[in-house]
User: Fold these one by one.
Assistant:
Number 1:
Amino acid sequence: MAVEEVQHVEIDGGYGWVVAFGAFLANFCIAGTIKSYGLLNLMVIETFAISAAQAAVVPGLLLTISLLISPVVGALCERFTCRKVVTAGGIFCFLGFALGSLATSITHLCLTVGVLAGIGTGCATTPGILITTRYFPTRRSMVNGLVLAGNAAGGFALPPLFQYLLAELGVRGTLLVIAALCLHVVAGAALSRPIAVHEAILRRRRRRRLGAVLAEVASEFGSGLGKRPPSELRRASLRPGTHMVPVVRPGPDGQPTRLLMQVPARLRTSSLMLSTTDVTTDATSQFNDDIRRLREAEGSCAPHLYRRVRRYLDLDLLKNPLFLLVALSVFFMAAGAPYALLQMPVFGVSRGLTRAQTAEILSIVSAVDLASRLCFGWLFDQNLFRRQHAFAISQLLGGVSVLALPFVQSYAAILALFIVYSVGIGTWFVNLAPVLADHHGIDRIASTYGLVRMFHGLSTLAMPPVFGVIVDRTGDYGSQFFAIGSSMILGGVLVLVVGVTRLEKEYGTLETPPEQQPDCDE
């Protein structure tokens, strides 16, 4: 193994907060618009004179395509960097909503808002989770909560704006404003600095800092400098509360290179540190993928395209019972996340609420969602209880609240149930990526998260038309919530099955005990 000069790499924060803000901005604009789409859906039904089942196709397509392309988006992030993928996503969203404002039929709306904006949504939102998860190895839940809080923040701020725009400009004018809003995603994408680039910047700063230390030592000790071991000089430049961990990264020539990485001292005992290789994996260059590619080139007769797909998308996960059970849970949970919220405006109007009241409920629910994501994201990083249990309970909580909706009529009761729903959904979203990392390792997060979102997309493709048919047959917008709530509860039960069986131990990635992790201070 080739060994080059040992270098220092600082992780877990720093510029990562700027990257997290860029991902937050993308979620604010895109996911906030999707959460508020129920207000537009009401006007679409009236403008194009269509049924509830037909109107459900547009948001169904938008969500389905955005989720189905997630595995491809993960591969694109590995190949072209998250920054370029998010930029393309913002442009696609702009084109989708801008052209949608010219639609003359529901078919045109499906092709523009459904297909084009759906592609843009997938490209704009998925990379944020991938890159921030790698910037923050010890605070994944909290940072995922901050990023996904953009969904809630957008859902809080945009409904009153959309309600005003619909009253003043109509559907077409509102779609144009949404198109302009989506261009802000491009600005946020510029903040998503690839970790490989960030590490190079940190190394340059480290060399300058080490040079200053050398100059100071030289001025004090003169010729005695050469007798001081290099390891002591490196430790002299360490920041307080940190230590060094040896890792292996691909070098400029593709050969393995030994590095020393500077990490917070508390990282050594963090349950979220899966391995020293995990925390150095970035969104544009994965050492394990390089090794897999070399092995395939040496001993595999598979076609070149197949090898390239397998490099970026771990299809072996589809043979893993643990992954399949969680993926099926996501499939059933996706029936109401966020489709139940999209149906709230038409449901509220059918129960006698005004459109202003439905917009108010959307804003309040999104504010609660924001608070729950931030609070529970921080709480789960304290390791006070198992994340797996909270993952299941949040699904059951959301499902029960949706199941009770058909029985209520008043503004207060509808608001209360949707608040409970938002707590459950917010907690579920915050835990999804960290649970996958706990099960299968951070080095496979691009594949696991992408494939799970694909299952989410399959659900949003199949379920909304079924719920629309239920509404058309019964004539009651509340009847669909029986099916939605039951599906969400079934998803929670499947996660409980994982907890009471040995699937996690047999098919998951075992965490390295803290006492077995290397100690570079010795």
Note: The first helix runs from residue 16 to 35.
Number 2:
Amino acid sequence: MAPTRVHAASCSSSLCNGTLRFIGFNWHFIGFYVFLLSLMLFLNGVASLVTYDGAALLRLHPPVDVAGAASWEPHGWRCCLDCPCALSHQAVMCRPSLRPSSRRKHRRRRGKRVNLAGCEGELAPRHGQSARGSRQSGVCWENLRSVTGSELKETVPVRDPGAAAPPQTRFGLVNARSVLNKTFILRDVFSQHGLTFLCICESWIPFGDSSALLELVPPGCSCFNIPRSRGRGGGLVVVLKSNFPFKQLTPTMSFSSFELCLFELCISPRLLVVLIYRPPKTDSNFLNDLCDLVADCILKYDYVLYFDDFNIHICCPDDVLAKGFLNLLDSFNITQWVSSPTYARGHTLDLVLSFGLPVMNLVTLPPVFSDHSPILCDVTLPCPVPVCEAPATRFRGLDAETVSKFVDCMSVRLETFNPDPSNVDHYSQHFDLLCNQVLVAPLKLCKSRPGREPWFSDVTRVCRRACRSSERKWKKDGLQVSRDLFRASLVAYQDAVRAARTAYFASSKQTPRIPGRSTKH
């Protein structure tokens, strides 16, 4: 029995030594496992964190008790509305009580506490807090009073359902593919659809040539022209009404993958409008250049509008460039508004993007004078722009009939006109009253309309009516023959107006002028 006991003791000692040696070499792993096990036990009763965005936080509010007044709650005062608008707005005003900090020492304030006169009721201090503690924290509950719903009617913003909606501004985007032979057609599009801004891509206007701009810009409008610096094709033109306060901007960076035009609407807050044209050829730096441009724009402006012809098939989900472009828009929180094809072959190439403001009433017109569809949309500007009203004049419609009628009426009234001649003021008042009674030609207000082009003749009007008639016929039947007739009538209208304009300036020897023209390269 003795050898067996010695052998068992030696085995137990060797086992203990091995265990201690294992623990010594692997103590950091064991400590990590013990820490992880304790952390799991500690977090067993802790709820998971929930993240909210800004819109979700605005929707998190307690229900409103319409019939009640101000009530005391442990976290502060809750003021409930007793007006009908509380049901629609769910207005809750909460004021948390100020908790005195134990670490920060407040200076002792000198003065005397005075109760406010005219309080509607006494308010109790927070549960578990004395009046002295409330005064030390800067809050005197005796000086606070409850707020009723009648007092909050003026503070709660309630929109009148019968009030007029804010005015909208009409924008247009057209890929003209040469403005040189479509000047009067685009001018008619600007006037017919009531546009305020018309952004044109692929103007194809050579540098230094302004003859097309003379025909393109309507009266009372201005334009920006950015031709391509080298080579043919390309070019950007913006036509806008002159009553808008605008300023053309020079890009701070140069981009080789697309052409760019920037202008700012000088309103409060400011609005930046960006016009971009990207040639169809592939450029590996396009996404990087666009990222730099967008980042620079949204850092300086809260509201940005993009009118672009990127030549990217965003309607194709398998296109690699389209995927990268859409991911770029999502990363900058930019909204793309065009959902229908804008190209004659069925692709979405022309886009309208916005940052910070919505785009409404977007319409894609059928492609007729170009292989791209014109895009029209309405934008509610963040600040209404003052509209310059047309000058008005007052006049009286006097002729031989009105003069004879005035003489007859005045002769009848003068028979009973017998004021005191010694009092000049009394005499003048009675005579003025008499003239108002026999007024046969009152003052009329006449607002001057914008003058029509003097070179418009009967021939040009007939051509315009032919265009309208062929357009209605094509929209009614949708046949290719009607579309070809409509295009032919547009070409005839363009040639007729250009010939009439040339003949007018040749006979009158006047020099046309481009209002507000700006050309950069």
Note: The chain has 14 helices and 18 strands.
Number 3:
Amino acid sequence: MENVYQTPISLSMQIEERTYYIRTSLMYTDLTREVLFKVFKYLIKSEDITDFLSSPEQQNILRELFQKNVINRYDYDLVSGQGLNLERFDISLLIRLILNLCKDNKQKPQSGWQTKPHPKDEGLGADLLQLRDVRNKIIGHRADAKLSEAEYEKTWAKITAILLRVVERVDSKPSENFEQRINKYKHINVDTDNAKVKRLLDELLSNKKDFDRHQEKVNAFKLQFQVYFQTTPERFVRYIKLLFDGGHIVLCGILKKKLGDNDLLEFLEKKKETLTRNIEEKFTSCLFQQESCSDYKKWDVFLLASVLLFTFDDDLSQNEIMNIGLIKSARVNYAVLALQSLDADDFMMNWTDLIVCLKDLSRNIADDDKLQVENLIERYKKEDEGGCDAEEYFKQIRESGVEEKTLNDVYKETITELKDSLNKLSQKYITFNQKHVFEFKLLTSCENEEIKKRAENLLENNLQASIQNLDQASDILRGDTDKLVASIAAHPDVEPVEVKQKCIILSFKCSSPGGLVHILDITHGDQFRSTFRNITDELHYIYGYAFLIQGKCTLESVSRVLKMINKCKYEYIKPYYIYHFSLLKELHICP
């Protein structure tokens, strides 16, 4: 692992930012819990929370909240029947209970319960939502356990103002000066010998390990295709299979023929300077290890092609050099080819080039090998060969580390190209003749497959309710799914269509370039990612497992619109002013 030198100043800053975080977290956790108990008693007009929760009426409500996934099994056991235990109530549970058992129109935030409170709303309901948001942002999403000085000052002032305001409202006789108690946390000992500090850091470390594990899983090569594509492109899988299987046979055949009676190890040693100068060390290192280079049939097609091109260049025809270069280039540029495979014409051009290349090269190899190549070509022409064993080939791509562009690179470039094209159309007041459906894919990752399916069903049901604007009892995720849908549909030309589940596909349609740009901006923005984090926190709370949700506009929908713009511009689009005039005419308004 590379050692990174850190100056005393940078180390000091890290310690200081960690201290800011710990003090803020301890102050918030300890005092917010205390204040929320005061709020609960104030709203139920009783000092006996246990008696209130034990009543048949409240127990029925709590049972409904559990059935609707508003509270999880663990918390339901804490608030129901004989298991009722106030000592084990945490901030999350207290806020859920207050918001669901003690809602009062007098306390309702100005902007409602399902949206972010207005900054100037200092009502009790708004303050409760603000405290919940602070918990999500500071406790739930700070795996690095650090706060900059500016964040610290801002967050501390915000929590202090809210707590003081709430205490003044609900507790007419505070036991001591509450502000002084808050300020004591600014000087609290943050050594790991402090039990509270150790518990906090242990919890953060556990959360970070869960997140890193799921991030690693989602970044696995196979899941890259699941993130960026609605379905793994069947054409691309067939292409990769033919490239790897057929390419390997012809390159091994050519290398065998060129070597003749020469010993491979001695030959490589003679060409060592040339190979190390032209091929990266991570690939050439295995060439000069006796146990790994003796069988070139185990080499990757990239390494085979590179050795041939850099050691036999004088002994290869121009046609052979071109064809071997094509195999090497295709091997390196897999991500570009994956995108191009979405278009039938682009795929057919790449597919034909590969077949011609393999047939040309196979003329100079053994007859048995040539027959194998011909059989592979016929086999992979069949669409059902793009099937479930694709992971074996993805593994070869992943393990070799050979790539000029990753799928993420190609995705970013394609999004940028589409946005540039759409903005040019908007500047010319051009719109589309028809609405285009744009798809956004949500990929959920969880170690427990059964829990993952249940979470996806819950998320899909809430998204469906948000799209259809169903007036039903609010679920635990409904506020966040409302935000997701509303943020995309905020543009007047963008209309939600449906939610499909195989993973989860959220579809919107619009007929203007500006509407599509809006979708791209929103779905790649920080606020969108923040809402995802809230949803993962809620799913973790409900099911007790760590989740990771990734969301991307599918490359299929991006590629479809981009192709329409580039190839069918004059057929499918018309000046905006004509569209606008016809709209005014329909409304009987003269422009």
Note: The chain has a mean pLDDT of 80.
Number 4:
Amino acid sequence: MPRRNNDEYNQANDDTKWCYATGSCKSIWNTSMGFAAVKSTWEDQRIGYRQVTTPRQDLYIYSSWALLEHLLRDSGKPIISYEEIQEMNREVPEQYRLESEEEIPNFLTFFHDHGILLYFKGEGTGTHAILSLQWFSDAFSRLIADKKHINRDCKRQHITEWENFNQTGELNHKLVEALWKDEKVDSTNAPSYIEYKTELMSYMERLRMLVSIGEIGKGQSWYVPCMNKKPFTKDIIKANKACSSILCFRYTSFAIFVFYRLVAYCVSSLKWKVVPDKTYRCLFQTAAVFKYKNHTVFLGICDKDIQLQVVVNALDIRTEVSCEIGRLIDMGLNELTQTFENTNLTFQRGYKCQKIFCDENDMSFTLVEDLCQLGLENIECSCCPIGKNHQINVQETRRFWEQNLKETESFPTVSQFPLERTDGRERQRGEPFRKDRDDSYPLVHTQIIGKYEIEKRVGRIQFTKGGDVYDVGTGFRVGSKYVMTAYHVMEKKLEKLWSEVHKLLTEEERKMIEWTKDKLPVTGSWNISNLIPSLDHKRKGRVMGLASILTEQHEIKFEFLKEGAVGRIAKFKSDIAFASPENDVLILELAELESEPRFFNLVEYNISEEKIHVFGHPDGIPLQHDPGYTIIDNETKLTELKKEGIAFFKKEWPEKELDIIDDYAPCVISEDKILFHSSSSTAHGASGAPLTIVDKGTIKVYGMLLHGHPKIFYNYFKKKDMKRPDLLVESGISMRKIRSLLESCLPEFEQELF
């Protein structure tokens, strides 16, 4: 495609509009993927962008992306391989080609996010992109068609298998092919579904439309929840001795569709085992029964309520297990609910007043917040008729789903959570951190935060040497045994460790690890233990000595609430679970503890309207709670803030003008980043702090604090009187970005954390 002259500014045809301009372009589409093509300025070069109408909005994208999307659409193919896309890009004139083929996943993910095609990175789905959503939808429709609409060959040869599928939702691979077998050539020349069976089934699994349930005889089989017509029998519950209260998630709409996907989520993501019962699996039209840590989990749907109950054939339920089950289901529902973006789909968390699972006659529902009224041991059920009026035992209802609940516990008031002030007086949670903006937040946030035992989840990372202790940053608990923090918190020590290890290895031994030009392992897990078996005794001792930088000299101190407090010390293992220097993310594995600190739930969605809570150890001081941060998500306001900030700090520090400009440069609006106003109390040592929100009665982490801008203030200027705190900006990385990093190189680890 030849370059156009400047006077060829607009060219329009039936459904596309191409625009070309010269000079500078202030902003081109930003996405959560942070692709390299995003540029803030273009100097004397011709730019093409295309207006694309999507199901959600009009977008303006790069000419290279627009051209490739146009070629994909014109190919007429409903599905296309990754290799074909690479070849298609290579055939484009160089000036209109993607900058590198590594950009293709971001290109595909962008159009996936905006409803134009289907593409997921990862095994099974990353090899192909589905261009025709109608073709994909028709493939699934063929599978779930009623008897009247299945083909004649299936009726003649596979009717027994189909009737079983129609009753139980269990689908074997032979029936898939029979249902997709074409009776005549399709006039649209679309490829056979059978030809792309592996890819189609992988995409349906990824979208939780169905889930693989292993082998039935020969070949793979799947479970399709929406096809299950098997009635639920309550005899299974009666066979168990102890039952929990019923945790309930009430939806305004689409509850049944969320339930179908939740069952698939429990099997595929949580890896829960479906309970067998003689010749069939305990999967029913309105319920599913799983086994988890020797407890039986009942998951059901009744009207608009998704219900959860834990039972066990023993004297009592282990509440730490039931609490974990509740958290996992809550996480799953939050993830699944996000996919109904345009429906304002939400749910409320509450309890049933009785312990009868999926009782159609019981429409009771008591919100968690209503059950947590201060100091009350019993409350009157407001849902049941007057003739069946009764009391709800608050303690007995809550204890299965809320950890560390004591018999005498009532929700604390604000005054029960003292934090130290710099002036020596006691400071309450909710009191402003000297910021010139609204720091208020709902009182219920304080109650939830107090219940969550933040001090057991967030700790001070410190370096010990010769009996002295130096604070280096903040870390927080994730997954079963890990701590997440910013990479730069331990950057110098890690670079020293791995550069020395690199020197000790022979050329052949170095091939065991993929290295960067900086002689560090590439993004992923950094495992020293993999190297040790191949080393001789002398070098083995040297490497283990170097590893003591992590195992002996670094540690994290939880429950550090007051100066002089002993707290709880946890050590790290030498193997690093995940490191990404370029993205400033580090995940360390904890050595064994007698009682592991609690972990946080991670979420990848962005809630820009919400205020966020930051918990950390700025300057190494006892745990601080900085509430009421507001997110910066308006590009115009951000541009004005940066301009004014540069002018202000340049006056105070004229010799540092270029440094100040550079310090503000990374502050750009992107779903990979979280920008928010900081305060003069945030300082070194807070790096790695979790950025949290209070959502549906619990605390969730959706980002991590990395840097303060401009650095000159945090490094030098704090000693002076800070007159303009509104010009300070904190930046963090979103959990969405961290999840995508893990998904690309450590998918199993990603599943554990998210």
Note: The longest strand covers residues 568-580.
